[in-house]
Every structure is written in structure tokens, then in C-alpha cells.
Amino acid sequence: MTLPIFREKSDDSVGWGQSTGRDSTVSAVDRALHGLRHMIATERLVAGQRMPPESELCDELDVSRGSLREAIRMLAALRVIEPRHGSGTYVSQLRSEDIIGSLSLTVDLLPLTGLLELYEIRRVLESHAAAQAAARMTESGIRTLYACIEEMEATSDPAATFAPNQRFHAEIARASGNPALEAMLEVFRPRSHNYQVYDLPEGVRIKRASDDDHRVIAEAIANRDPVAAATAAAAHAAHTEKWLRGYLPDDGVPPSGAAGNSA
Amino acid sequence: MTLPIFREKSDDSVGWGQSTGRDSTVSAVDRALHGLRHMIATERLVAGQRMPPESELCDELDVSRGSLREAIRMLAALRVIEPRHGSGTYVSQLRSEDIIGSLSLTVDLLPLTGLLELYEIRRVLESHAAAQAAARMTESGIRTLYACIEEMEATSDPAATFAPNQRFHAEIARASGNPALEAMLEVFRPRSHNYQVYDLPEGVRIKRASDDDHRVIAEAIANRDPVAAATAAAAHAAHTEKWLRGYLPDDGVPPSGAAGNSA
DNA sequence: ATCCGAGAGTTGTCCGATGACTTGCGGGGA
DNA sequence: TCCCCGCAAGTCATCGGACAACTCTCGGAT
Lengths: 263, 263
Hints:
2 copies of one chain form a homodimer.
Chain A: H1 28-41, H2 54-61, H3 65-77, E1 81-84, E2 88-91, H4 96-101, H5 112-136, H6 139-153, H7 158-175, H8 179-188, H9 203-222, H10 226-245
Antiparallel strand pairs in A: 1-2
Helix pairs in contact in A: 1-3, 5-7, 5-8, 5-9, 5-10, 6-7, 6-9, 9-10
The structure holds a DNA duplex.
């Protein structure tokens, strides 16, 4: 691997490690964080490798063990490293899906307005994934899609539709062949169920519309028609987005009568 | 005080630990992490609010101060909370662009194969943003685009093209009107410069092709033609992706079956 | 050859103390 | 009266040490 001309950015990560220039403007945790990150960026530590023990890292980075551990936890939250009790701290595989998966803890905390911004992204990506799936999905995958559809249509219980709905979309995402895309759609999707649109007064109508959407998507994929699949998936995501937007005026109140939508 | 602790496991505690599922005993840091997250999710702490001091949180969550601080750092790395020295720890604004921006520290660490997976996503999103920009960008924004283009074309120094290139794409992203989309493109973009494609033997040709791409994109946006803008932006991203892919096959191992990865 | 226990190595957790920074309050001077 | 300054309380930042919990290897016993 001589090729990757790896240019470590010179933003604020120069001269880490020497205690003489202990810049008072940089906190100890930042020193440890950037120091560890630098070790990985420069491939001194490679994916899957066990890192030196905390005591050595403390010595090299010139921070206390407490500060070092806080930096370690930050990188662990970002799925860059993975501490194992009693064994050591390991660099993760650094796969794109892992990195993106680090958002799973936080998207649930977004207010509805921020969530809707993510839904525009989701709509575009879901559409793209469906197009790819139309070209790549296996026959057995397509059969799985229809199995999910039938399972969803067989019940009107919102809780029972959750799992097959997840599987349906996950199957399409996986067929896209891009793990990063799959992970991103996975992160964005589950939140749509925190607001339980099926419990609205129009729940029955909404569920039927959703079922119809799923059939159209599956048909397009089965017909190997990427454009139709993309269109259908975008429409489906747009529907969800529209229903969700109904929650905007007052939080938690169904928008039957008090819908003062401004968008 | 002596609360029996929150035991509502079956609510929203999914997808955060991919380990082999040993949840019989929960570590102290996990208790603190989920406790804090739960306070925010249930809106006991709202965006922008100052959190209780660490001593109180330690008492309530029943963890030591060290473990609590590690949990705090994890949420801080995810941009959910923000500690301020001497003042207190505050819940962030919880905007989608903040959450997505937490990836900025990690994308630089991805190996090239993972980066290429992100580039497929980037291509789709850049295309969408360009289409939106064609419909929404102001006249002054369009003038800025051309100013960036001229600045880029005026030099052949890779370092000098970096800034205007950033501004060009950032302007289009901002014109999309979606802060989350803007942040995501911002996260994905800068990495393209860590591999300095302009320093390749074909650098001159590549740069000219890139300049041409930028002109086509700007023309389409100026003509208020979303479809043309989307196409041009997708083509531009695809070009970058192709050049970057040139770094891939480098090896001491013969590329049998293209690394087995289902592209 | 297999099983198992001891021991070294490593991370997890807690405690106490001190430094650094912010903020608000009140005193002193113009 | 008004403004500036300094003090003090509150809070986070950092350090050092100690012990517990866990993993893994190695050597002995069966």
C-alpha cells in the first residue's frame, strides 16, 4: 500500500505528542482525542488492531488516564474504536456502515422539524436504492418483498406491521449493494414509527395507501424497471413525510381539526 | 433521591450496542449514557437548557463522576450536549445539521473502499441539491458560482483551487434549502482532497474536465433547469469518483474478482 | 492429549483533591 | 447615580491512586 497519498490535514493537529509545547489553549482531552485520531489517520494503528494499553498512551500523549479515557469514549461513540473489558481497546474495522451507524443514538432526539429535513434526504436515497434494487435484486429477494407485503396486508394492527415493514425496506436497501446507503436508510427509518401515524383518525386510509405503495414498488422491482421503482419509492417516502408533517403545528396532537400548516 | 431507576427497557433502546447481547448487567457508563439520553428524549431536558451539575447527576444516576463524565463526552462527540468550562453542560440545539456534522471527525478515517461507498451517496445527494438549487438559488448566488469558477480557472495550483471549489459546492448545497443536506455534503466533500488527484500525471486533464463540469452545472442552474443541473452534478461527482477509484487497484496482491465486493 | 487453575495484563469504576474558568454580586470611585 | 473592578461561589477540567472485573496465556495435573 504505497499509493494512498495521505495528507493529514493541518487544521489544528500539528505537533501533538511533545510535552514542551503543551499549548494551554488546547485541553487535555482534545490532545488525547486528536492524538489517537492522528495515530489512526497515519496508519500507525490500522483497522482491527489492538491499541497500546492506556498506561502507555497516557505516557505518550501526556495526559492522565481519566482524560485519555474520555477521549477513548468519544471515539468509541463515533464507532472508531472499541474497548473490550479485560482484553484491550481495538481499532474498529472502519467500515462506512459503522461510521454512519453512530448516528442511530442521536436521530431519535431530533425535533420534528429536524426530522423532516432528514426525510427529504431519505426520500432521495430511498428512491436511489429502489432503482438499484430493480437492477440487482435476486428473485428470492423479490419473493421476500411480496412475503412482507402479504404479512402487512394481513393485519391492521400497527404493531404487527412494524416488523414486516422494516424488512421490506431493509431488503431493498440491501439489494442496492451499498452498505453505507443501507446503513443510512436504516438509521433514518425506524424513527418514523415514534410518531404512530396509523393511530390517527385517518389511520385506516393511511395504512391502505401505504400498502398500495409497497405493492407498486415491488412490482416495479420485479419488472426490472429502475425508473418506476425510483418514482414509486420517492412517492412512498413523500407520503410518509406528508403524514408526519401533520404533526408540526402542535406536538403530539393529531391534526384533525387544528391543522394550521404553514409549509 | 433513592429512585428505583427507570426500568422501561422496551421503549427505544435499540440498535446502540452491536455486541453479542449480554445485557444482564449494565455498565456504569452505559447507565449514565442512557440515563442522560432518556432525560433528553423525554424532554425533561430541552434544547439549549443547562443540565444539572455533575454532582447531582452522579447522585441520580448512581454512577461515579468519572463514569458520568465519560458518558457526557460520548454525547458531546455526537453533538447532543455541549460542556462549557466553568459554566455548565448544555443540551445542544439538536438541529439535524449538528447531528450530521458529528461525522466530520470520522469520515477522514475511512479506507478508500468505504469512501467510495459514501461517494455513491454523495453523487445522489449532490444531484438532488443541484436540482433544488436550479429552482431556488438567488441571482446573487449564481454570480457567486461564476466567481468561484473564474477563480478556479485562473490558476493551476491545486492548493489555490481548493477554497473556491469548496465555496462553489457549498453555495449550491446551501441553495438547496435543506440544512441537513448541506451538512451531509459538507461532511463528504472535503475528504476528496486528501487524495490529491490533481497531482497525478493526468492532473492537468483532470482539472480541465473538472472546470468544464463546474461550468455546465452553473449554466444549468442559471437557466433554471433542474434536470440538467441534476445530471451535470451527478456527472461531476461520478468523475471524481472515477478518478478516486484509480487509487483502488494498487496492490501487492492480484485483484482477483475485484476484491469480491459487490460494487 | 486434554482439562483446568493460577497469574499477568488490561479495562472498568470509584474516590479525593486541586486547578481553571465563568458568572453574578457587591463595594468603591468618579 | 452610574460605572468599573475585584471577589467569591459555582462548575467543569485534570490529575493521581487504588481496587475490582474481566480476558487470555501458560504451565501443571489428570
